[in-house]
Design goal:
The chain has 246 residues and is an alpha+beta fold. It contains six helices and 19 strands.
């Protein structure tokens, strides 16, 4: 059964944040001097002819006890129960924690009807990084035990007629990116290999990436292809422009 006859992309912004040396996220207006980076955190809702899907899920930021992502979906008259798929680029906490919300001494799934797509090799890598502040292992364990996980093992492929993916590495060892194509439109989600517009302006290999040189080379290739094929690029961490029309 089809949901819509068109495709629509909607940013679901958690907010603008400062990141401390210990990789804690603080709302920008509340940030002190102990910060290294500033960035937006904004998952994307994608409405295709067959799915309501999310590209990553944000920090799980709460406002008055309710997930901000719920409030953003409500503005579009969409229930969390309508989400059919969640595509995870990688497993850093600012990309997956929005899958859950606190409940008593545990958590509750925010999108209980959704299939959660995870790159299996990325998950195996994360398990080897116990103690890293980049990950929330308690939340990750809850997700693995309670959500409907679709394990991805291929280097590239087609998830649906509209959605394709490729394992790129770069920001993390098995980071993956997605293309969504419908009616001659192409939306590209480079996640943390292409998180902000400035990454296209300056060709830099960032030390914060697992393989910064590889990520830089990919951005150069993607920019050229995006201009040739008129992609719209979804920018997860850009504070001003969530969708860049090439």
């Amino acid at each position: 059964m089809k949901i819509n006859t068109y495709m629509k992309i909607i940013p679901l912004k958690d907010g603008n944040f400062a990141v401390t040396k210990n990789k804690e996220f603080v709302l920008l207006e509340n940030a002190g001097a102990d910060t290294q980076l500033t960035m937006a955190v904004q998952p994307f809702l994608v409405i295709t002819p067959n799915d309501y899907l999310l590209l990553d899920t944000g920090l799980g930021w709460l406002q008055e006890g309710e997930p901000v992502i719920f409030k953003n979906l409500e503005k579009e008259n969409i229930s969390p129960l309508q989400i059919t798929k969640v595509l995870l680029s990688h497993l850093h906490k600012d990309h997956i924690n929005g899958l859950v919300r606190p409940k008593e001494n545990s958590y509750e799934l925010n999108f209980p009807n959704a299939e959660i797509y995870i790159q299996k090799r990325e998950y195996d890598y994360v398990l080897s990084k116990a103690g890293s502040s980049s990950f929330d292992f308690e939340i990750l364990e809850f997700i693995i035990q309670n959500a409907h996980i679709i394990w991805m093992n291929e280097d590239q492929g087609q998830l649906t007629p509209e959605i394709s993916f490729e394992v790129t590495g770069g920001h993390s060892p098995f980071h993956q990116v997605f293309w969504i194509k419908e009616n001659n439109e192409t939306f590209f989600y480079g996640a943390d290999n292409l998180p902000q517009r400035v990454y296209l302006k300056y060709h830099v290999a960032y030390k914060s990436d697992f393989d910064g040189k590889k990520a830089m080379e990919q951005r150069i290739k993607w920019e050229e292809q995006a201009k040739e094929e008129n992609w719209k690029i979804l920018l997860y961490h850009d504070m001003k422009v969530p969708v860049l029309d090439m």
